[in-house]
Every structure is written in structure tokens, then in C-alpha cells.
Amino acid sequence: MKTFKTGIIGLGTVSRTHRNALAQLDHVELTAVSDVKPEKKDELPEGVHFYQDYEEMLDQEQLDAVHICLPHYLHLPAVTACAKRGINVLLEKPSTMNTAELRQMQALDREYGFKLAVCFQNRLNPTFVKLRELIGSGEYGKLLGVKGVAIWSRNMGYYNAAPWRASMAQAGGGCMINQAIHTLDQLQLLGGPIRSVNGQVCNLALKEIEVEDTAVAHIDFENGVTGTFFGTVTYVKNSSIEVQAVCEKGSFTIKDYGLYYAPAENENEKTLLVRDRRLPGSKTYYGASHVELIRGFYETLAGHEDTCVSIQEDKVISLIEAIRRSSLEGRTILWKEMEEQ
């Protein structure tokens, strides 16, 4: 396998996870990074080139791929710059801030023919992979409902540290697009094609910010499955994400980094089926599957099986927008309305 020369645009918190993952991979060399803050250069290993202007980096370096780890409002311009130069992209979530931007990015993908993959690493968590396998087997009967719960803690210090997070124009939303996006992505993967969405978004505690601190939604899927979502950042701590799938013969629940099964005839009889790997430190909620996802990205570039989540597959941005629109307009949003945008 050839050695891929790689760059990173944006050296914020999540970029450390990308850098750590790249350091574990053979045939991938972190060649250059870009960040507007010159002091970020001090974080880099010797030999990695540093730029404050990412377009200069893209022009000066012969890069095979770039990881984009920027604030949300900068994703589309950075992807556009890479697309026009034929540079492959691994894009941190969220891909974009809304469906209009998503359609622009999907058009870039079709026009320029570069690889544009989105970082939905939690799809690769062993608990979620096993859950999809068990539901798909048919052994437990028809899927009836799915539930996702994301109850975390974010105070004003979090938003003051990076004011763009509090801005609709720069973040595109709050708890849904920032904290609960993986949970919503998993719900839509489990449930299948969406028929309609009803939702409410509000600010229960953080009145000073433009973006929501709380959201709830009811999702109807084409196959009759019912989805329920609740997300908030108003709690005193980050609680475990919970994803549940109810089948005719029993229920599966992902919680506290484990997948549990309870038969319908005795829901108190829970069996642990598999556990997730956990990241060390305080960012365990990132999930430990970044390394696997990033390895798969480069294996795809090398011509092996394509395991990437293409920008064309990204449904969660439109789901978040549908929940918000339902709340603002006070009505059910049909999924075909989102597809027509």
C-alpha cells in the first residue's frame, strides 16, 4: 500500500483524536496542518509543516487527503477548496449546518469525483454493529420502535470558550447537531426510510444562547417503526447515551458502553451481549472507533472495500432540520419535503 500524505485543517479539540489515530496507522504520514492560531504549531511533532492559511497549505503540499476539523460554518468552504484541487476529504461531523449546504456539498462530490467521507465513527462501535446484525437477522421478529436519549452537560463556560457554538449562523444548532448527532444518525439507520417528523426545540436553561439546549422528536418510519428522541445539555453531568430497539420478541439497549438484551416475556432479565472499547481520559463519549474509521478511509483510498460514509448517505442533517422546522412551524414535516430541497 502506498504511503498517503495527509493534512489536517483545524487543530481544535477533536483534531487530537485524529492525530492520535493517524499515528497508529502504517502507510499514512501527517505532512502538514493548518490553523489560524500560530501557537498551535507548538503541538506538532517535528517535521510536520504548519500553515495559518489552509489554501496555501493545499497549494504548497502534495496531499492525498485532508481531515477537516473546523467549526461548522467553515466546513463547506474548506471542502470546496479541497474539491477544486482533487484532494480527498475526511470531514468531522456535522458535515454541514443545514440541508441547503448539504446539497451543495453533495453536488461538489458528484462534480469533482473526489472521496468525501463523513466521520460517523459510532456506526462502527461493536455494540451498534452487533445491534444492526441482530435486528437484521429476523430472529427477534419485526422491529417495532427505536429510542435515542442523549442527556449531557454544557454550561455557559463551554459556549463562552468558543462563541461560535452559541450562534445559529455559525454552529447550525445546539444539542442536536453538536452533542446528539451520532444518536440521531443511529436512529435513522435502525429505523430505515423516514416518513414524517414531529419535534420541539427549546432553551430550558441556557437562555443566553441562540442554539437549542433541548430537543424532543417523534419520528415515523416508512416501515411502521416508531422513533422517539430526547436530547439536552442541561443536566449536571454527561450521562450515558442510550439507544434502544424494540422487536417483537425482545428489546436491545445500548447503554453504559454495553449492548443488553431483554426478552419480551421478562424485561427484567437482561443479558450483556457485547461491550464497546473506551477511550482513556475525559472524552470517552467520542467513542473509540475513530481509529477504525480512519483506517477504513485510507484502505478505501488504496482501492480496498469502500467502508466510508459518503456525503451522499448523510441523512442526519436533514433529520435535525426537520425537527427544528416542525417546532418552529408547529406542524408535521413530511420527509419528502426535505428530499425536495
Topology:
Blueprint (H helix, E strand, L loop, with lengths): L3 E6 L3 H11 L4 E7 L14 E3 L2 H7 L4 E4 L6 H10 L3 E4 L7 H14 L3 E3 L7 H12 L5 E9 L4 H6 L6 H4 L3 H5 L1 H11 L2 E9 L11 E8 L4 E7 L9 E6 L2 E6 L2 E6 L7 E5 L14 H12 L14 H14 L3 E2 H5 L2
Summary keywords:
single chain; alpha/beta; Dihydrodipicolinate Reductase, domain 2; 9-stranded mixed sheet; 12 helices
By helix and strand content, what is the structural category?
Answer: alpha/beta
Count of alpha/pi helices:
12
CATH topology of the largest domain: Dihydrodipicolinate Reductase, domain 2
- Inertia-based shape: globular
Find the CATH superfamily of the largest domain: Dihydrodipicolinate Reductase, domain 2
What is the CATH class name of the largest domain?
Alpha Beta
The number of distinct structural domains comes to 2
- From the N-terminal CA to the C-terminal CA, the straight-line distance is 41 Å
CATH architecture group name of the largest domain: 2-Layer Sandwich
Helix content: 25-40%
Largest sheet: 9 strands, mixed
Order of helices and strands: EHEEHEHEHEHEHHHHEEEEEEEHHEH
**Radius of gyration in whole Å, from Cα?**
20 Å
- Average of per-residue pLDDT values: 96
